[in-house]
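Anyone else keep sequences and structure tokens together like this?

Example one:
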Amino acid sequence: MKRHKQISGGALLFFCLAVFARAGIEDKGRYLQAALKAEKWIAGTAITSPDGLAWPAEPQDPKSINATLYAGNPGVVLFYLELYASTGDKDHLRKACAGADFLIAGLPAQKTMGLYEGLAGIGFALEETYKASGEEKYRRAFLQCVDTIRQSARQAGRGLEWDGTTDIISGAAGTSLFLLYASSELSDKTLLDLASKAGDRLVELGKPEGGGLKWAMDEKFPRLMPNFSHGTAGIAYFLATLYERTNKKGYLDAALAGAKYLLSIAKTEGDACLVFHNEPDGKDLYYLGWCHGPVGTARLFQRLFKVTKDGAWLDWVKRSANGLLESGIPEKQTPGFWNNAGICCGLA
């Protein structure tokens, strides 16, 4: 639960600000005020050190400070950057920079390359801090992250990988999404090539089923989780995004095959679309959030609509939304709807 409590403080604020950016004039003020009130709570949990500012994942436990985008400093830094962009208040930028300074100090200790749990997520926060502040030390640290990820890649099969994990959270799909981002930020085609080699390896690892392809988080994990954070939906999302950048049809074919597998196992009664939590023992459990539910898996359908212009994929986005509407949440607490405010598996 530690991760989920930190998300309720950081990622939920991203949600508030995203809604604020799209809302009407009256609602904008209401959502912004909610974000500002939440910031006061976040600020009250901060720990000042010679390296900068840090926010524990569990506010009463300083040992829970961590550098993951999922539950640590990078997410809070990004929140403060968003709040600065929304208000122009330089105190929010100051706090973002202090949090980024703490991340820089910890770079030598980072051993994992993942997006939500590793160096890729840190690098993203540092580059966004550079763009907001103009301070070169954040760009230099971002480049350090990119270089470490590049050097840590290892040859595997027809492509490359980092540690054998495939998923969005800590594996090759998430790390490679960061490489696509870095390639654009730096106009560096070699990073696009690196992401493509990771894509080649992921295509190779896809296992035929249901007329399509499915992916395991890694070969040693006993459960197969098909949705966005640890499975097929997230990997296929990366491959569709890679196709968008490279125009190489093999990546699109694999992404479409992943979607076909997901639809082959989806619960589609009532014009909905829900994919079970895991196999073999979670086929009757339907999460409703971003990690293992329609909120995340619909991102694949939306990306396929974007890259193919096939309106059928937009229909699956709508059916995923129907799955939420028909569930009875938030008034009804279902087994797949956790009682928290977080983005990963909660209300946000």
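And example two:
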Amino acid sequence: LGAWGGDFVLATGDHDTPSYFKGLGYDTVIPYKEMVMNQNN
């Protein structure tokens, strides 16, 4: 993960969780469904 130039956090929550992390200053929030490899994509 160092190739990303920083730390990586995997968090679970509900639909409000992305806005919580954005409010803490995390500019990049990627939903799980976008991050995992999907055979249909």
